[in-house]
Structure formats: C-alpha cells, structure tokens
Specification:
With 380 residues, the chain is an alpha/beta fold. Among the domains are: 14-45 and 90-148 and 298-380, 3-Layer(aba) Sandwich (Rossmann fold), CATH 3.40.50.1220; 174-257, no CATH class. It has helices at 18-26, 38-41, 60-63, 66-71, 73-89, 94-105, 119-123, 180-197, 208-222, 234-238, 243-257, 301-311, 332-341, 370-378, and strands at residues 31-35, 109-113, 144-146, 149-156, 163-164, 288-292, 319-323, 345-350, 364-367. It is globular. The termini are far apart. The structure holds zinc ion. Residues 156, 158, 160, 162, 280, 282-283, 286 line the site of zinc ion. Zinc ion binds next to loops.
Amino acid sequence: MAESTSSPTPVPKVNDDIPSFKAHLANSNRIIAIIGAGLSAASGVATFRDKTSPWATYDSFMISSPAGWKRDPGLVWQFYSSRRREALLAKPNAAHYALVDLAKRKEGFTALSQNVDGLLERAGLEIRDHDGKSAGEENNSGQLIRLHGDLFSLVCAGGCGYVEHDNVDDPVYGCRVLAEEAIKERMARVHILGADMDLGKKPPKVSALLFEGIALKNKRILGEEKFREANPTVGDAKSLRDVQDRKGKNEEIGKEVGAKGGGETLALHSGIDKSELPQCPGCKKDLLRPGVVWFGESISEKIILETDEILDKSDGIDLCVVIGTSSQVWPAAGFCERARAKGARVAWVNTRIEDCKSRREDDWVFLGDAGEVVARILEP
Ligand SMILES: [Zn+2]
C-alpha cells in the first residue's frame, strides 16, 4: 500500500550566484552562447508567437513555411515585410552590446544565434563565414553564426542561386503591396474579426486554416452557386461563436467589414498577384524570398558544418551560455548537451525556469529579462 504523504513538491534549487559565474567566465576562453528571441525582446522585437501581434491569428505554417509560400507568397511577403520593418525600427539593447564586448575580450567566443533580426550584427558582432556565401564576404575570424539566416538577405525562391545581402529597403524592391500602409489596411480587416474573437475569458483558439476548412465545408453543403468564395466569410466565423450572446456584436462587425449577408470574404489570402512581388534579377523567372529558414526547412549544410566545428572538433569548451531560448527546441537543447560533452559548464538566462529544461544542479540560472540580465552577468 502506498503511504500517503503531505510533503510539498520540492522547490528545485537554483544557482544564481553571479560572483562564481564571473570567476568561471574570467578563466574561460572557449565560450559559446546559444541565443534565441529572448535576447531581442527588450529591443521591442516580438517573439514569433507573441499573442499581441496581429499575425498571431495565423498558423505559423501559413506565413513561414514552403507550403505557405506555395499557397500565397504575397501573404508570406507581407508577414516578412512587417518583421523587417520591426527589426529596422528596433535598436540593439545592452545585452547585444555586452555580447559584442565579450567577443572582443574572448577570442574563443562564438555566438550561435537563432535570431534573424540583425541586431547582434548592428551592435558590431562579425559574421563567421568561411566562403562568403552567408554574409557576402569571407570572414574566418567572425564570431557569429546565424542558424536561421537573416531578414535582410534575399534569395531566389526558384533556386537559381541569386543572393542579395543587407537589403534594408522598405518596401522591398519598391513593391507597393509590401508598403506599411498596404499591410496595415489588410491587417485592420483581419483584426476586426480577431478583436471580437478575443471577447470573453477564454477565446476559442481558431486558426486561419480552420477557417478555410470551414469555408470549404460550407461550400460543399451549400453548393457552388450559393457559396461564392472558397475563402472564409464573416458568416463562417459566426458559427464558431456563441451566436445567442453576441448576435448584436456580430451584426455590427458585419457592417464594419462591409459584409452583405455575411458574403464578404475575410482577407486570409493576400490577394496579391505574383507580378507585384520582388522578382529575381538573376533568372528573371522566379520570385525572391527572405533568406531565412522556415518551418519544415533544414538549416543549411554549411551552417551545420560550421557549428560542428565549434561544438565537436574543438579541444574543449569552457562555458556555454543559453540566452532567451527554450531548451526544449532544437537546436538549443542539442547544442547545450554537446557543449557539456566538451566539458562546458552551463549558464541559463531566461524569464522562465520552465524553459531551462535540461539544466543540471551545478548550472547557473539567471531569471529575468535578457536585455538586463546578460549585461549584468557579463560585465567584467
Ligand atoms: Zn532566380
């Protein structure tokens, strides 16, 4: 028989001792930092799943995957135009500068960053690039490896090999449909519905793909003549809500969107023709796309070789600092364990202890906003 016990769950011990971390840091030269979105949060760059972003109503796969691109490249470009604009308006924070400063002090430092916002580069960290294919010029002594590419590189979507670096034009290639106003206008229409769905304490988690599925189902039930569009409508959205409670509100929304009997389509498709998007100057046949790694895509072989060199072929690693990234998500988890295997002690910087899943008892854990914490712990 199991003994009944009332002892509370033990609180995991956290080693947040800055002096011992600094002492270890001072004696370390071979240092790696595994960096995620948390580093740029203090700069105002939204994390990918930021609930406050109007793009949060979209499936990640619709706006950031090869399948999404195939379905609607205009929508993908509008999303990335917004991200480019956001990153351009942001400024590197104290943590970015602290890492650049560390890189200057420690020759054996390398940052493995999942961020695509260009803020570490703007703070002054040089990109490691053996053949000049990632950053435009060869740089064997660079201390930044960009695992997921960057927002300001453009590549041919058809694979002709055309690459453009440091394109900070807004809108990209002067495309009118990617201008801020065009995107805002479209998002405002989507947002009318989104705002309504957030009513109530527990809004239904509804993805745009689900809307589309519902629309297709309605089309099958109603027949082609009665259902004019395959796109979801305000009427479709209505069926997802408690109609009794929100009848008046729904009618109001219908008016606002300009719906005629719920027939107005919601702007889940961009409606943008390919001819209006950035064209590849190399082959003149395909579109240009952002030079980032999408969901469902793998990190380039070149980057994998460069990280292997840092993590596996080095004599040893003294310290691994994991900043603003959930350790459950590849590649952070794998990199951290590989660094441990090379002798590294590990320090975590995160807002949530839950995100430091693979931490061990003698790791350091510094909880808080990376923008502030990193600068404090790296200060010489
Ligand atoms: Zn091309």
